[in-house]
């Protein structure tokens, strides 16, 4: 009787596909739709055809919460897209786990137009603020999971990117995720403070070097 051979390590490793063109193209298309949907909720209230200038100004003034939430969400999603672009620039291969981690990120980003509309209609309402924070926090968690898998677990990244740079990128993602998740309890007890957090986090990630010189090894591939 022939003894069974030990399980192959190769068989347990997800099949790798060279390049990231298809996943990047799909992600870019989804993000483009998301940022387009954001503006659909920003509409003037119905006005008569003979509305006066004062009526028009009042109508514009009434939608400022919607426009403010749209602006914050647009730049937040844009930052996710920029980070996604820089992140994938250093990836050499994909596998099915990476594809589904990326789909998870897109799932939570696709909810942003809904939570943005809720926040715009109920600015300062604790549940609306907490729901928005939870949405962004879960999107951040999905990005962190994807980064951990690619950079530290499966190592689908260009070998020229150093280990410290990989860990810094994961740490950076954890910081952003933690701040958004902090907004959930903060939104329930101090919604205005949480809303200021929504403005501050994107600014912090837009300003180069605010968290130190991060991402340089990744950006050289973009």
Protein described:
- By secondary structure, this protein is mainly alpha-helical.
- The chain has helices spanning 9-12, 21-40, 53-62, 64-89, 96-110, 112-121, 126-153, 163-189, 191-206, 216-219, and strands at 17-18, 93-94.
- It is built from ten helices and two strands, in the order αβαααβαααααα.
- The chain has one domain (19-42, 53-219).
- The chain has a two-stranded antiparallel ribbon.
- The protein is elongated and about 65 Å long.
Mean pLDDT: 87
Number of strands: 2
What is the helical fraction, as a range of percent?
Answer: over 70%
Tally of distinct domains: 1
Q: If strands are numbered along the chain, what order do they take across the biggest sheet?
A: 1-2
Tally of helical segments? 10
Q: State the shape.
A: elongated
Describe the biggest sheet?
A: 2 strands, antiparallel
Please trace the helix and strand order, writing H or E for each element.
Answer: HEHHHEHHHHHH
Amino- and carboxy-terminal Cα gap: 56 Å
Which parts are unreliable, with pLDDT below 50 for 5 consecutive residues or more?
none
Q: What structural class do helix, strand and pairing data support?
A: mainly alpha
Radius of gyration: 21 Å
Strand content: under 5%
Write the layout of secondary structure elements.
Layout: H1 9-12, E1 17-18, H2 21-40, H3 53-62, H4 64-89, E2 93-94, H5 96-110, H6 112-121, H7 126-153, H8 163-189, H9 191-206, H10 216-219
Antiparallel strand pairs: 1-2
Helix pairs in contact: 2-4, 2-5, 2-6, 4-6, 4-9, 5-7, 6-7, 7-8, 7-9, 8-9
């Amino acid at each position: 009787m022939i003894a069974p051979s030990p399980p192959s390590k190769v068989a347990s490793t997800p099949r790798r596909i060279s390049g990231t063109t298809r996943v990047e193209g799909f992600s870019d298309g989804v993000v483009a739709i998301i940022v387009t949907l954001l503006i659909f909720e920003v509409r003037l209230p119905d006005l008569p055809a003979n509305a006066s200038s004062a009526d028009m100004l009042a109508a514009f003034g009434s939608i400022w919460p919607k426009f403010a939430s749209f602006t914050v969400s647009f730049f937040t999603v844009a930052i996710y897209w920029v980070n996604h672009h820089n992140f994938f620039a250093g990836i050499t291969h994909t596998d099915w786990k990476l594809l589904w981690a990326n789909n998870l990120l897109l799932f939570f980003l696709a909810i942003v137009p809904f939570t943005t509309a809720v926040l715009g209609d109920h600015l300062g309402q604790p549940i609306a603020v907490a729901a928005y924070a939870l949405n962004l926090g879960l999107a951040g968690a999905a990005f962190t999971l994807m980064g951990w898998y690619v950079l530290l677990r499966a190592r689908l990244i260009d070998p020229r990117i150093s280990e410290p740079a990989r860990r810094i990128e994961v740490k950076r993602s954890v910081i952003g995720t933690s701040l958004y998740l902090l907004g959930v309890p903060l939104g329930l007890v101090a919604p205005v403070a949480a809303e200021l957090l929504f403005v501050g986090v994107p600014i912090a990630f837009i300003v180069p070097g605010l968290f130190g010189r991060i991402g340089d090894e990744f950006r050289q591939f973009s």
